[in-house]
Every structure is written in structure tokens, then in C-alpha cells.
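Recall that a protein's primary structure is simply its ordered list of amino acids. Everything else, from secondary elements to tertiary packing, is in principle encoded there. The following example makes that idea concrete.
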Amino acid sequence: MVTFLSKFHRVVSAYCTSSVYPIRQYGFKCSMHSLVEITSRKSIKPSSPTPHHNRYLKLSLLDQLLPPTVYGTILYFYTPTTNHCDHDVAPSKVSETTSKRLQASLSETLVHCYPLAGRLKGTASIECNDEGAHFVEARVRCQLSDFLKQPNPELLKKFMAEHDSKTAQIALGTCVLLVQISVFNCGGIVVAVSPSHKIADGISLHTFVRLWAAINRGEYHQLVLPEFNGATLLPAKDLSTMHNFLGRPIPTQTLNTRRFVFDVSKMTSLKAEIGSRIQKFTPTNGQLVLAIILKCALAASHQSKPDGDTTSRLTVLSQMVNLRRRMVPEVPENEMGNWFWALSLLFKENETEIHELVINMNKGLTNFCKEKANRFKGDDGFLVVSESMREKADLYKAEKGINLYRSTSVCKFPLYEIDFGWGKPTWVSSPSEHKNFILLLDTKSGDGIEAWVTLDQQEMAIFECDEELLAFSSVNPSIVN
């Protein structure tokens, strides 16, 4: 039965990712390109010029490590409301009015976030020249409610400016901020915000969007404005002799991305069982979800190996750790930049049971927080970064083959509180297409965890049929009732 399902999913995957995607739930067949039409591309400049003394912004050492072409994106989906969709007015007119208001409020927001209107210069600075954020408008030829019945990862890319070919040519790697506003036939809206990872981690992105939404509502006066002091806390350095694994190229091959929603209530008994074995600590829901995914992904990787391949491989989980609240003094949330570290957690081939994975995750994080987390500042910050890079380089040299997985979590972020004046979002998403990447978010109701998982196509065909995985999660369930 599992073999049959695996073959069935491979056929479906190939069919769904072909150039003509049969979007039956939207009422018709069409190509992915004709479903989403880019209607304009423009630059949105700050409403007031940036003072000359703020012309150049030095980036921190952690910003410096990240490649210029990587953008972090969060998509906010809003259903039509009376605030932004008058049913007596054509949707095109409504979207035009809404877009103009968003552009005007973005222009005001960039006055307070002036580096996001600048251009990247080298690896460790931004020229704050007010050339503007890259702003894309698009029309989606279907109903938002139909799309939300079963969100398509390939279609999600069409809502993200970095996947627009013309934007890639003129803006990617130089523009600090990309924004795309996509309007559905019904008047529903997707706001996709993509700052360069050179200047913004997940918390920084949320800080910016929260300010923009408040300005669009006209209610921002009580908000704490963003600060750009990263280089003062942790200055950039000469990295010519350092092995940089944060910017390490990711292998390109045929990949599949899937969305899984984990029901927290289904993990109650598992948490109790794991807790009884561990005793020293109670695992979080995020740790359990990550452990389940990792266990099933490793099983899929093993099963997909050619017959006769008995190579023993070390597994490395590169887990993004938020440094802000682990430093003394804490780095405030309104401090822009990258304040996270990719913690490498090592697992032997015989340590893949859920409780073993959870124990190793917790032990690695605890040791990191005690020994290194508070060192990412001043001269000591450069030393700890150098040490960590050298350890990673030695690891990759010593091991012939490594199963490398990357994970990040934005659970506990108040993503569903972003209100541009039309109410809170119906759905928030942040898909990734990097190999062996796992992203965790809270569901809107707060009683589940949404996981985006990207694996090799053959491995995904096995992974998504894993009975243990499906005992705790649903594959791409509907977002609308």
C-alpha cells in the first residue's frame, strides 16, 4: 500500500509541477503564468529625503556573512472586507485605490526605515540613497477562497517579487526591499514583503511590516521605531580567510515542497511519553514537530538510496537560534539586522528515535546558550564566529558524506496581528524552496503548527506517505472552512 501511494504521489507531483497546472479548484485550466499577471513595477521612495549624515549604513558582522541575493519573505493573505472592497465598485477600481494607499504609506514608512530604500554596497554596507523599494503589482485570475482550499506552493512563488524574472534582472542583489501586492478577482489581497537578508532577520521583517501596517491605518504614533545600530554592537571584519557556511551554495536538483499542519492536541500523549523518558525537561511542541519531521525525512533518505548503498552518514541539523533574548543586555526587537546563529546539531545514524533527537536538540541549544550566545558582540563576537566557522569546516572535511538539514521557526511571532486597516490576515505563509529546509509557523487558531518542508523529489514521495508523520499531521489542509 505504501509503495502504491509513493508511486501515486510521484505521478501527482510531476503533473502538478508541470508548466500547465490543472487548477480545477479554481474553475478552469490555465498556465501558471497566465493565472498571475504582473501589471506594474516601480520604485517607492521615502516621502522625505534621508539626511546626509545617514547616507551610509555599516552592517554588522552577522549581516556581512549573508549573501546579497537571499531575501526573506512573509506573505499576508487578506479576504475581502467592507473596509477595502466595496461590492458596488469594480474590483479593479478597489485594488487601484488600495494599492495607492499602500504605496503612500510605504513611502512614509521608508522615512523611518531609510536603509530599506537604499542599495547594497559590497558585503557590509548600504548606501541610503533613497532610490526606493521595488514595488510590484499583480492581478490573480481566481478567487482567494478557491486558492485557500488547497494552497499551491508553485503558485505561491508567483506572489513573491523575487520570483518575477524582470525583478530578478533589475533589483535582486541590489535593492534592499522588494514588495508585491497581488489582488484576486474577489478583491482579496496578498501582501508579500521581502527585505534583503543582509539587513533583516524574521523579527526585523515583522518590525517593519508592523510599522507599515500601523501607518497605513494611521495609528503608528505609539510604536517604537526601528533602530540600525548593528555595526556598533558587532562590527564587520575582514572575512577573506574565514570559511563562510551561512552563504554556502545549496545544491540544485529536482525538489518538492509540501505543507503539513500538525495538530498539537494529537501530540499530548507523545509529549507525555517523551517527557517520561527524558525527565529533565519537557519538550516544546516545536521540538516535537521538528523531531518527527527529521526522523521521517531521514527514513525517506535511507529508503531512497540505491540498492547496495550502505554508506553511514552523519546527520547535521543547522537550526537557526534567536540571539536577541539570549544576549546581555538583550538586543531589542526594534533593532534591525540579523541577530540569529545557525547552530549545528549532530546526530549519529543510530540516534534517530524521536526522544533521542529531542534530547540532542535540547542539549545542543542549552550548551550553546551557556557557552556562546552572549559572546556575539564586540571583539569577542568575531572570535566566536571564527571558532564556529572553523568547527564547521573541520566537520565537513572529516566526514565523507553528511545529511544536512536546515530549520527555522517563527512560532510565537504575532504574525496574525498585522492589520493594514482591513482586519487581521486570514493566512500567513513563508514557503522556502531550499533543499532539506524545514520552516515552522503557528496556525492562526494557535492550536497547530504549520510546517513547510522541502526535500529531494524521490525522498518527498516517500516522506509524505510516512504513517508516523501522518499520525500527527495533515497534508496541505484547507485554510477556509
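The CA atoms of residues 79 and 253 lie 36 Å apart. The chain has a mean pLDDT of 88.
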